[in-house]
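In response to a reviewer's request, we include the raw inputs and outputs for one of the modeled complexes. The two entities were modeled together in a single run.
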Amino acid sequence: MSYKLDDFRHQLLRAGDVNIHAVVGGDGPPLVLLHGWPQTWWEWRKIMPVLAERHTVVALDLRGAGHSDCTQGGYDKASLAKDVHGAMGALGFERYAVCGHDIGAMVALALAFTHREAVTRVAILDAPMPGWSQWEANFADPMVWHFAFHMKRDLPERLIYGREFDYVSVFFADRTFNHGALPVAEVEVYARAMAKPGNTRGGLEWYRAFPEDHANALGWKRDPLTMPVLALGGDRRWGPKIVAMLEEFATNVSGGSIRECGHWLAEERPAETTKALLEFFAK
Amino acid sequence: MIPDLPGFGFTSKPDSGFDKKTIAQRLRDFVRALGLSRIALAGHDLGGHVAYAYAAQWPEEVSHLVFIESSLPSFGQEEAMDVSKGGSWHFGFNMAGDISEELVRGREKLFVEHFMRREKVGLFDSNSVSDADIAYYARALQRPGALRSSFSYYRTLPIDRGDNLVWGQTPLPMPVLAIGADWGYGPASEHTIRRVAKDVQGAIIRRCGHYPAEERPSELARVIIDFLAKTKSISR
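The model returned the following structure tokens for the whole complex.
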């Protein structure tokens, strides 16, 4: 994973008791980007340079992924949010905007609820949220068969071991509309990241914390967020449902679908995703 | 008569037809090829789904039904498939498509051993099925087409759901024995079959997981023999 972007610097940040890997660049009000599964900070590579023209962009590896620590525990979304807040504090940022995709979107929402004073705006990209009224019913959707598989302890690690590319490539392909956006070489970046000792488990731990996340979010949503929330999804995946979903958690929600797009917004439709994010964060 | 069901063991591995309606039709062809027309029928786990599909389609040809540690789509199976309600992950995994075969290939023994000795509904005494037995099942899954066929029994559950709903409107007329294991599905097999049959008896085998034929063979044989001997079926 010696993958680099021009004009961005890599560094480790101390957040509580974990080291968080961050890629930082640009100028302006801070914006932190939170990736999903089975990904790393690299999922933002296509949109970081343009975002960095107006923001100080911080793309993190979540606990359990990339070059961040893979601890034994602490994978519930409130703990991952605490890591993010600690990392932003280590960079000297007390208030910042946040954008999360997939599991990272769950972390972004948890961060907004647990650090309301710090988070100025939240963008949620293409994911179901723990605490959503349809969260449990959604487990019956054949597209999320992996929720149950990942929540099973130990066995998935054994079955995925050595076959990270096979698993990740099928996972991407089944959820992509614009297949030209994710060539084999890019999928290999994620497969290699997953093959790093501990990282397969780290990513699966995010799913194993779902029951705790759901219980926490049911409590949080009783006091909805008041900061602006952007809810964006691919029109072939969560786009049609995502605004109504987020309206269960926040009073000021905008957004909708990006056309001809699956689950991987920042990679499948980088220009449209960048435009929507810049407009939202500039307001 | 103890067949390997289509796709399993040394029975051939067809391209399609893994819905239980079709499997039951093939099983009936097998029974008729043996020169039989009316049988007592016992099924375990997915074999219970097949046995129900047989009994529901040809009720006059089944004298007794024995339903062992099993469930039925539309009549209780959905809860067992839903992890948010305490169900098992493996339904979604087995149904996912080619990736399921890809991840298990070469790891069949790990997979079989996991199920037989798993923490939930697995063997009560993990040594009651030997390593050699597990290796035998693993070898069977290693034959070309075996994993695909085995997973296809799961991938057709949505089709079975519709068939069962239609059949379930007419309760089974023959006597039914539902056998559960206290460390397996417990009373769930009986609860399921009571929704589609009118003459049901239940039995629970103690200190036993989901595999009573291997863990408690004599107890299982005794309850089946007693049921067949003492329960008169309406003759046709």
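As requested, we also summarize the result in words. Chain B touches chain A at residues 78, 81-85, 87-89, 91-93, 95-99, 102-104, 107, 110-111, 114 (CB under 8 Å). The longest helix of chain B spans residues 20-33.
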